[in-house]
Fold:
Amino acid sequence: MKNNIRWDNLTYPEIAKLSEQEAIVLLPVGSTEQHGPHLPVGCDHLMATAMSELFAEELCKRGKPCVVAPSIPVGNSIHHMSFSGSMTLSPETYMRVLFDYCKSIASHGFRKIVIVNGHGGNTTPTETALININEALGFPVYFTGYWKVDKTALSDILETQDGIIHACEGETSLMMAINESLVDPIYKETKGYPGSCLKVEDDGILSTFHRMESHTENGVSGNAYAATKKKGEKVVVRYVKAMADILEDDNLWDQKV
Structure:
């Protein structure tokens, strides 16, 4: 069935009409990388895409045209490459791909672009890429993680964590809400060490690059066993409302680079 909020489901005249309507374009970026023994390797881009579609649906209901661009399913995941199934782009390649995606979208007249992230490893290269993207396009392209829009949702709803870690109570609950069939029942027995290698890193005094096996043997950080579909559904509702509240504000689009 045709999905009218997905760019890749539309004809070019339909996309041209959305441009004339000054539609918001959501660009999901994620990763293809291991998520423990219980979540699919596509977890991050699947979540970014699903959440973007829910955001777009809510914005359209509020009278704000919105469309979801084709997602970038492979990101900066060098630190996961010791685990089977993981794929990565180099940070330089990822930034170039992101630049070309945004340039392509803008070439059709769209001036309201939001990159919706599903993977923490994309944060630094995306923020770096935005320097050149915004300079080239002449207007601000925004960047957010789908989990950033409501800073208390996870702490209010989860039982063992205050936020998203990796293949944890939060991500597992959200995936159950989006597509429960992709969650292996072994999640009920799964947990992993949530911290960094040294206390000075946990305290934010020093930072560096580590591969994932330096943190966790099973690829999990956090408590997957505590996940439930109900928790995920509650978080999704809060995220959707919070994002729509932010993006429907016309003042957001009047800013200069």
Q: What stands out?
A: Residues 30 and 257 are 25 Å apart (CA to CA). The chain has a mean pLDDT of 95. The longest strand covers residues 24-29. The chain has one domain: 7-254.
